[in-house]
Design a protein that fits this description.
Elements: E1 2-13, E2 25-40, E3 45-50, E4 58-63, H1 76-95, E5 102-109, H2 119-134, H3 141-155, H4 163-170, E6 173-177, E7 180-184, E8 191-195, H5 202-215, H6 217-239, H7 248-267, H8 273-284, E9 289-292, E10 300-304, H9 310-315, E11 322-326, E12 334-335
Parallel strand pairs: 3-5
Antiparallel strand pairs: 1-2, 1-12, 2-5, 3-4, 6-7, 8-10, 8-11, 9-10
Bound molecules: (R)-mevalonate.
(R)-mevalonate binds next to helix 4 and helix 5.
């Protein structure tokens, strides 16, 4: 039995624009998906998943070939999660050159599903790592990140960047520009997350931005402007020093850039009333800055909170179902047992 975990992430800057080759900077957070893989003597795949949302639920299925499971699942979100698990199994089989490998897989996750915190990437990364290790064929992190990306790309019909999967594999903050992915230095930023209890449809939201971009010049320019913000943010992060207190001015500037980034994402039509409400609450409670994270449409915002007040303020905000601190996860995927 092999147990691996991988972190979720927030986007400091750059979601959506990254799909068009602009740079992005996601950062891993200490909310993890944990996957246990046990090889079977037959070629079946059995998956048990619990806590795949903050509310938690359980689903089980047995499949014969690793093809998308043909079973009743409680919600479309769970069905989507099963699709990711299945794609991870196929990647693990290919990596280990074991096309008929069967597994008993258990997934536990404290990352809200489909809410902009990279839940699917964390499950895919931890799943491929656990399954290949369980077969005695571990793969290095670059190959793992690449295979996890291919799994997401397949499930999301070709509408995935490498950001979520690379960040979850490596941990810390990373820089993504097309196929060029690298870890970067970042201080431990005071993240607070607000979650509206919902989820956006990443495929639909990405398609919506693509449509806008092909129709309006402003949308094209907005994507380029997001890329400019990312580059400024990167330069600031490079100036950070390890002592958190010494970074105050830099955090103020980073927060301002996050505010700009949120405004530009709203212009691209991917924010939502609940996300805007949480963003404004966080700012008014003293956050240096706040923005939606991930595909948008619903889900999570991320704020930089120097005060310790933002979490409580968010918890009283209409439309906010949960608010929590999240520290930077310096470790990416790891073996748990
Ligand atoms: C989704 O977490 C982030 C998007 O930029 C899509 C992607 O990068 O794959 C919207």
């Amino acid at each position: 039995m092999t147990v691996c975990s991988a972190p979720g992430k927030v986007y400091l800057f750059g979601e959506h624009a990254v799909v068009y080759g602009e740079p992005a900077v996601p950062a891993a957070i200490e909310r993890r998906a944990t996957v246990t893989a046990e090889p079977r003597s037959d070629d079946h795949v059995r998956v048990e998943a619990t806590d795949l949302s903050l509310d938690g639920f359980t689903v089980e299925y047995s499949g014969g070939t690793g093809a998308r499971p043909d079973v009743d699942v409680p919600t479309p979100l769970v069905e989507a999660a099963m699709g990711y698990v299945d794609a991870a199994v196929r990647q693990a089989r290919a990596a280990a050159d074991s096309p008929n490998a069967g597994f008993d897989i258990t997934i536990e996750s404290d990352i809200p599903l489909g809410a902009g915190l990279g839940s699917s990437a964390a499950v895919v990364v931890a799943g491929i790592d656990a399954a290949t290790r369980a077969l005695g064929e571990p793969i290095d992190r670059r190959e793992l990140a690449d295979r996890a990306y291919r799994a997401e790309f397949e499930v999301q019909d070709g509408q995935a960047s490498r950001a979520d999967t690379f960040c979850s594999t490596m941990g810390g903050a990373v820089r993504i520009e097309g196929d060029d992915c690298n870890p970067i230095d970042a201080p431990n930023l005071p993240f607070v997350i607000g979650f509206d209890g919902g989820a956006g449809d990443t495929g639909e939201l990405v398609a919506g931005v693509r449509e806008l971009k092909s129709t309006y010049r402003f949308a094209d320019d907005t994507v380029t402007a997001i890329g400019d913000i990312v580059q400024t943010g990167e330069r600031l992060l490079a100036e950070a020093v390890p002592e958190a207190d010494a970074n105050r001015e830099l955090l103020v500037e980073l927060g301002e850039l996050m505010d700009f980034n949120h405004g530009l994402l709203a212009a691209l039509g991917v924010s939502a009333r609940s996300l805007d409400a949480m963003v404004w609450t966080a700012r008014e409670a003293g956050a240096y800055g706040a923005k939606l994270t991930g595909a948008g449409g619903g889900g999570c915002i991320v704020a930089l909170d120097p005060t310790g007040e933002v979490e409580v303020a968010l918890s009283y905000t209409q439309g906010c179902e949960d608010a929590f601190h999240a520290s930077l996860a310096t470790e990416g995927v790891r073996v748990e047992e």
